[in-house]
Design goal:
By secondary structure, the chain is α/β, with parallel strands linked by helices. It has 15 helices and 17 strands. The strands form 5 sheets. A 7-stranded parallel β-sheet has the order 3-10-11-14-15-16-17. A 4-stranded antiparallel β-sheet has the order 6-7-8-9, with no helix packed on it. A hairpin with a 4-residue loop joins strand 1 and strand 2.
Length: 412
């Protein structure tokens, strides 16, 4: 019996094995490919030339065409692929290495003092990419100044890089017309693909505090001023819930997985203690994740980098279905132990190939053997979707990318 990509992915959530391991590549903004590698990869694969479209301007990630997805047997697709489909939605730009590319029409970097900058609607510089860099970085934190007006979180988000530099669907506008376009394009994408569709929502809590106050200041607030943090998070969660109602009201019938984000970990372990997670974040995560399931019956994914083993029991208890990117080189994130201790409670979406050392520094043979080993550990009994650990960066040899997917193919 033939099984579709969507069925293959969803079977992983039932902790059942399928005809092969489901595979994600560019299904969300942390499983993608640097735009600087697109032409090299297509050439190595013997594919025809195709315009390089940078759908995520901050991280400089590219849209992967159907021929690449088909060649690698990819089972996922991002909801954003149903938007910005016309030439008028894009304008020409140039990548750091001089490669011509296209950017979404609503993102227009400017040149200033040997750097590219992005301004908010107010004209403030909120992001920069200095010459020699390969990504944009945040340069303005709306709540960092102790005298700043912190009463309007939505207004502050409009001055924050991660909230305003949009990937497709992009800024559709408020009101019925925006929701109508969101709904109709999502419905059209659903009809056109058998891949599992991931809807990127966000709903970041810890990270939004860090994006508005700056990392160091928000972490100090958590320790020194809990009442202020609770007030901020209450107001922020209310915003997220309002947006969640609108988002899933429009696309809930057309997506399979909703992606939330909060990088709770570091290389050395969690940014915060389990006790602090339980006090500040778990109740609010649970509220949002429960509501998402009530509204649309979707699977809930959390993008969460770093070592978060100590937080996994609470994340699972809060209603999390799957976590990515499973940073296997961080403390406590060894794949065999994660599978042994949590392999029947949560889907590991990632951990398929280390992107800190092996994918970028290893030989194709080393990459191939590493991938086969990760699959042997993580795939038994289902509960696993293959994804490399985070985005593939510009310095990765394309031969290693091919070796990674050859390892997946041969394991099948």
């Amino acid at each position: 019996m033939t099984i579709t990509s969507r069925e293959r992915v969803l079977k992983a959530f039932d902790f059942k094995t399928s005809d092969r391991v489901p595979v994600d590549f560019s299904g969300h903004r942390s499983s993608g490919l640097s735009a600087l590698l697109v032409r090299k990869l297509r050439n190595a694969m013997g594919l025809r030339p195709s315009p390089v479209k940078v759908y995520d301007p901050v991280q400089q990630l590219a849209i992967l065409d159907e021929d690449v997805l088909d060649a690698f047997g990819i089972d996922t697709i991002e909801l954003g692929r149903g938007f910005a489909l016309e030439d008028k939605d894009w304008h020409p730009w140039v990548l750091p290495d001089g490669t011509e590319c296209l950017l979404p029409e609503w993102v227009k970097p400017e040149r200033e003092d040997k750097r590219w900058i992005i301004r908010s609607e107010s004209g403030r510089i909120i992001a920069q990419m200095p010459d020699g860099a390969q990504f944009f970085e945040q340069v303005w934190y709306p709540f960092f100044d102790e005298n700043s007006d912190k009463s309007d979180i939505r207004a502050a988000m409009k001055e924050s890089m991660w909230h305003t530099v949009a990937a497709p669907p992009g800024p559709l506008g408020d009101g019925p017309d925006g929701e109508k376009l969101l709904r109709s394009s999502a419905e059209k994408l659903r009809r056109s693909t058998s891949r599992a569709i991931i809807g990127l929502f966000g709903g970041n809590l810890l990270e939004t505090g860090q994006m508005l106050y700056r990392n160091d200041q928000f972490l100090l607030m958590l320790a020194l001023d809990p009442p202020a943090v609770h007030d901020f998070l209450d107001r922020l969660t209310e915003i997220h819930l309002e947006d969640l109602e609108r988002f899933l009201g429009a696309v809930g019938n057309h997506i399979d997985i909703i992606l939330f984000g909060d990088d709770l970990g570091m290389q050395s372990g969690p940014q915060i203690s389990p006790e602090m997670y339980r006090e500040f974040f778990k109740p609010r995560h649970q509220m949002m994740w429960t509501r998402a399931k009530e509204l649309a019956g979707v699977k809930v994914m959390l993008h969460c980098c770093g070592g978060v083993r100590e937080l996994l029991p609470d994340l699972i208890d809060a209603g999390l279905d799957t976590i990515n990117p499973v940073q296997i080189t961080a403390r406590g994130m060894e794949a065999d132990q994660l599978k042994k201790d949590f392999g029947r409670e949560i889907v590991f979406w990632g951990g398929g190939c280390d992107t800190q050392q092996i994918l970028n520094n290893g030989s194709p043979e080393e990459v191939y053997r590493h991938v086969k080993r990760q699959l042997e550990i993580l795939s038994p009994g289902g509960g696993f979707v293959f994804q490399q650990v985070h985005n593939i960066l510009p310095e990765v040899p394309v031969e290693n990318i091919q070796a990674m997917f050859e390892g997946v193919r041969d394991f099948r």
